[in-house]
Amino acid sequence: MTPATGAARRKVRGLRPRIALELWRAIWRYRARVLAALVLLVLAKAAAVSVPLLLRDIVDDLGRAAGQPVALPVLLLFAYAVVRFASNALNEVRDMTFVQVTQHTVAAFTVRTFGHLHRLGARFHSQRETGAVVRDLEKGTAGIGYLLGVAVFTVVPTAIEIGSVLVIVISKYGGGFAAIIFITFGVYAAYTVVFTRRRMRVQRRMNALEAESNARVVDSLLNVDTVKYFAREDVERDRLGRVLDAWREAGVDNQYALSTLHIGQSACIGAGIAAVMLLAGQRVATGAMTVGDLVLINAYIIQISLPLNALGFVFREANDAMTNIERLFGLLDARGKPGEDGDAPGAQPLVVRGGAIEFDHVDFSY
Q1: Which pTM value belongs to this model?
Q2: Which domain covers residue 309, as residue numbers?
Q3: Residue 342 confidence (pLDDT) above 80
């Protein structure tokens, strides 16, 4: 780890309490909606965990020994369809309930930052590229909204779902399956954390280059008359091209790192599924479990692999959001010298006792 990387990590860690405070304020401000969304979330997860249990009973009812009469389990089939629909529908209602919290928070942060930028003095705006400022404002406020949704609807439901699956598996089939699931989760999480942190260096460089390219485009177009006056069109194009070449190389490195991360995550999940299915198959062969039990175990391991994949994606996106919020807070923390952003200490109110405007020999022609 280079000194620059270590400093960047320490800076991001230092922002976490501040970000957590901002998120908590947003949650508390809209606590009624957040509470309603959490209730819907718990109901949706309960329905999702019930689906494999119903599927197991259906398979066992239909898989009786040859020669025995088999009655179609209409009630179970109907319940399976209803519970599966309820799980998806409750998630959608939850999103509709929570969307106003996210939108209001993003809008409030945008207005707050926009107002602060207007209060800054001319020195700040003359030393900062407008395109980079606009990019930092947009990406940073979007990052706040993303982290707000992640805090409420990704980490908590994933923990609930994995915990529920472990409890059911341990109570019905013993600790062997639960141990495999737990080890798979631990290896997956450790691998994701390590490789995502390595990728953050490339992502931070991409963000800086993207901000620089946006700044060059916006500032060049804002001053297009000056560019044309000095015949610098080719120079401006070449400057932008060099920045985009560096951005392209960083993007390739980022994709290589991302693909390596995905391959390793798939290997972790695949190994866990293989171990669970081998153990379940062995128990079915010895008569200790039914075919329905094997279907249940397979459904559960696949069901929790989906939130595991989501956790990996969320961890990556959350780190990207943190780097963008870091730049947003840089805008909010910007201050000029005394007297630049407002009146100097001890400044007296301007008192206008009189005045006049006189036009003398003002001519105009076109």
Answers
A1: 0.64
A2: 16-332
A3: no
